[in-house]
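Known limitations

Files may contain more than one protein. Parsers should not assume a single record per file. Below, a two-record file is shown to illustrate correct handling: read the sequence, read the token line, then continue until end of file.
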Amino acid sequence: MATIRLKGQITEDGRLEVDLPDGLESGEVNVVIETAPPSSSTGPAWTDEEIEELTRIEPKSGADIVAGLGAGWESLTTSGSDWVEQLRRRRREQSQW
């Protein structure tokens, strides 16, 4: 079985228009339709300026990164074993009827 890829057009009235190459034998074929991505005429397209703005990289210093972390390890006042015990207690309380 040979595979031939052709471009076609679906008309407003639901017909498929395809130009077949010369020399194809008549007979049964399987038709698979892959739609093309929408063109800019069917929906909003990104402008070059919008793409550039969205893909702009703004590096941050280490101090900026740390400042953006907010409350972290300093808010932990209990040891790891105390935290695990608190977690177990909460789970036991939640699983009770």
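...continuing to the second record:
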Amino acid sequence: MRKHPPSDIDPAQSLEPKLAALRNATTTRPAQPLAFLALGDLLGRLGRFGEAIAVFEEGLTLEPRAIVLRVGLGYVHLNRNDRGAARHHFEVVRAAAPERYDGMVGLAHVLAAQGDYPAAADLYRGALGLQPDNAATRLSLGKCLLEMGEREAGEAELRIAARGGPQSLWPAITALASTPHGRVFLTADAAARFLGVDAP
């Protein structure tokens, strides 16, 4: 489960057959954690958060050591903006598997949402040590640094992230404009030039 907007699902496409197949897969014994993960993830992306939580919790009851389900549970709580529950699950993940990238980033997202930018930035840096080319995580680090008033460092991270293409450029421009210590540009071209890339 990751932070996916419900709009990435085509509402015209009937997903009931897929949901039914995944539900059937979760009845297999011994339990298959990936079946619970796939079902919970899909339900979460559909915005059916209560059902997604129930699926992840059932999977964890059957397979308590399946850390991937704990990660999924953390993200679905984060997506429904239940930061307390999300933080609890990500902290459990961090204690059990501190090297997990998704757990590290998930906890960083929660801390940033709660305004603890220094702690979030430390986690984002750790995650980038594992995946240095991950533009989304670098964007998140850049935003944290801007929120902390570390303008030069934050802008440097956004410049690196913006090189990832249009899908990274626009979030980088938004980050510059939306943080208290950011910058506002009159045109997208000017913002892109500031970030050192060509506007699409």
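Parsers that stop after the first record will miss the second one. For reference, the second record is described as follows. The CA atoms of residues 132 and 138 lie 8 Å apart.
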